Amino acid sequence: MKDLTRVVHHPEVSLAGYASLTVPTYRASTIVFASAADYANRKGRGPDGYTYGLQGTPTTKTLEAQLSALEGGAHTLIVPSGQAAITNIFMTVLRPGDTVMIPDNVYPPVKAFCRDFLVPRGIGFTVYDPMAGAAIETLIDARTKLIWMESPGSTTMEFCDIPAIVAVARAHGVLTGCDNTWATPMLFKPLEHGVDFSMEALTKYVGGHSDILLGSVSVTDAGRYAALKDTARLMGIGVSPDECALALRGIETLGVRLAHMGRAAQEMATFLAGRACVAQVLHPAFESCPGHAIWQRDFNGASGVFTVVLASECQARLDEALGALMLFAIGASWGGTRSLVAPMAIGHDRVHGGAEGLGTVLRISIGLEDEADLRADLARLCDVLEQAGG
Ligand SMILES: *Cc1c(COP(=O)(O)O)cnc(C)c1O
């Protein structure tokens, strides 16, 4: 073999004795076949077979299998972001003339997707009160195809009655899906409550280090998995095995990270509840959180994200107070090792009301730092907020 040929044919090495604890990162676009007949029959490998890198490599499949196991599902699809996971479900299920129901506290880009993408294509949406429970039945009509849930909802932290909503949906032949990003399958498993699509922004807790973007959809039904996979294939959507390898590394510490974050977050919420600048704590361990009893009934604990409503007389000093923080970073995409705070003005995008009077709220994501340091930093914030005058 001449060198020009040699350089594109790597020598084979033995794998005998190579036992490692890590998942190898398999990168590929081209998949090669042993024979012409194998190539001709490649479609017969099904939605889980290897035919082209866009459809996944063993690294992608390992992450899919791990999430299926954790979610209590049979199949999982990985896509490039949490938002892409939601839009993939909607585009797989909905046809012109159909309607999707979304909660008022949904991750805001989902409302924008419905308004700016679905509606111009003849698909409608209705926005329901997340605390309505079984009463959402009155909103279901012949066009309703999917009820989307998010529990707790973004920023205002309402926990919805998933079993009650699923029961109503099933009675009307309507599909259900749930954004499980806050809880992760460590704290809640939507599929075990009869939800058809359990979705997660792996960008947040699974990735866990603020350096990847990925989303997942887990299902129990093989036909629904094939349909989700078809949507991704037809739209040309796949994920990098490098990102999946980082998600697999992240997931190994998910349990211990969530345990620390959950404990520290409850401690910070308790500290903040005792400060004069805080009017309300929206953390599920507190009765002031809407759906507190539902959380107690259905979830195995709380993760590290919660919200505080500020006393109205303290709002004017918020920007100055945020500037006093030394450990908490100001930013939105939570779930990493560093604690974050995001000032959120939410009233304008809610249609069912209730949020107008809240002003700018603080969404807090607790990271992996020491509780005493975090408490001292939050005390700096509160001290500025509580200064007289201004
Ligand atoms: C961040 C987030 C998403 C979107 O995830 P991306 O990977 O950023 O697209 C969806 N739902 C919830 C609840 C989120 O917090």
Strand line-up in the sheet with most strands: 1-7-6-5-4-2-3
Structural class: alpha/beta
Mean of all residue-level pLDDT scores: 96
Helix content: 25-40%
Q: Which regions are unreliable across 5 or more consecutive residues at pLDDT < 50? A: none
Small-molecule binders? pyridoxal-5'-phosphate
The 3D shape can be described as globular
Count of helical regions: 13
β-strand amount: 15-25%
Per DSSP E runs of 2 or more residues, the count of β-strands stands at 12
Euclidean distance between termini CA atoms = 81 Å
H-E order: HHHEHEHEEHEHEEHHHEHEHEEEH
Largest sheet: 7 strands, mixed
Radius of gyration computed on alpha carbons: 23 Å
Folded structure, characterized:
With 390 residues, the chain is α/β, with parallel strands linked by helices. Helix content is 34%, strand content 16%. The chain is built from 13 helices and 12 strands. The chain has helices at residues 3-6, 36-40, 58-71, 82-93, 108-118, 162-171, 184-187, 222-235, 241-252, 254-273, 292-298, 318-323, 371-385; strands at residues 75-79, 99-103, 124-128, 144-150, 175-179, 197-201, 215-219, 278-282, 305-310, 329-330, 340-345, 360-365. The strands form 2 sheets. Strands 1-7-6-5-4-2-3 form a 7-stranded mixed beta sheet, with helices on both faces. A 5-stranded mixed beta sheet has the order 8-9-12-11-10, covered by helices on one side. Helix 3 runs parallel beside helix 9 and helix 10 packs parallel to helix 13 (371-385). It is globular. The relative contact order is 0.12. It binds pyridoxal-5'-phosphate. Residues 81-83, 107, 150, 154, 179, 181, 201, 203-204, 213, 215, 333 line the site of pyridoxal-5'-phosphate (PLP).
